[in-house]
Amino acid sequence: MGAVLTTTELTQFFGGLKAVINFNLELPEGALWGIIGPNGAGKTTVFNLVTGVYIPTKGSIYFKGEEITKLKPHEVISRGVARTFQNIRLFGNLTVLDNVRIGFHLKYKARYFDVFLRNSFYDREEKRIKGESIQLLETLGLVHRAGELAKNLPYGEQRRLEIARALATKPRVLLLDEPAAGMNPREIDALMELLLNIKREFGLTLLVIEHQMRFVMKICEWIKVMDFGVTIAEGTPSDIQNNAKVIEAYLGKGRVEL
Prior knowledge:
Layout: E1 3-14, E2 17-28, E3 32-36, H1 43-50, E4 58-63, E5 66-67, H2 73-79, E6 81-83, H3 96-103, H4 112-117, H5 120-139, H6 155-167, E7 173-177, H7 185-202, E8 205-209, H8 213-219, E9 222-227, E10 230-235, H9 237-241, H10 244-251
């Protein structure tokens, strides 16, 4: 399969701070890859560059052959690249269902005058969005929470809701920033199963930032390791857990156990 998301010499400086230096990526369509590294290594900055939050100091970003380097976040999402965040960003005072419905706004077909007149097309469109939102909540195991406020959900279910909202944008590539953060082992196992299921069901390509080594080593097909903005290693989980540079810079002395 060809690369669906490509970066070439992606670089980001913040004044004198070199956050990311010459980050190169060729993410194959249908892959599930991971990015790891210590805090401050530049991982989230890469996601911010790819999704249009930052315009890179240097380098280019391509999605399915189209350059998206200087596109704004809503333009990147409309192309098919969605993300979740390291710190959960839900609309806490809205219901679970409404949080997902908001994710459909880029695919909303009713126009201003349809909404103003509340005509039959508006009614059909609202019914469609609600139906698809319910389907996503069923897939993510949250349909029983549809009428609850998002802020009242347990932490793990808030993570799932954020993924559901991202899926509502109908992405081809989904970037997940520390999806397992704060979860216990049972929740992490459930999350791994969920991600594999949605990857298969929605035909997604996934790129994951994560600190949970068991998660990364079990689910990712290929891993890139960053340290101080530089890619210091990449390879299969087996390659990474035996790489001397990775062990020294991030994983500590000794071999990582699955």
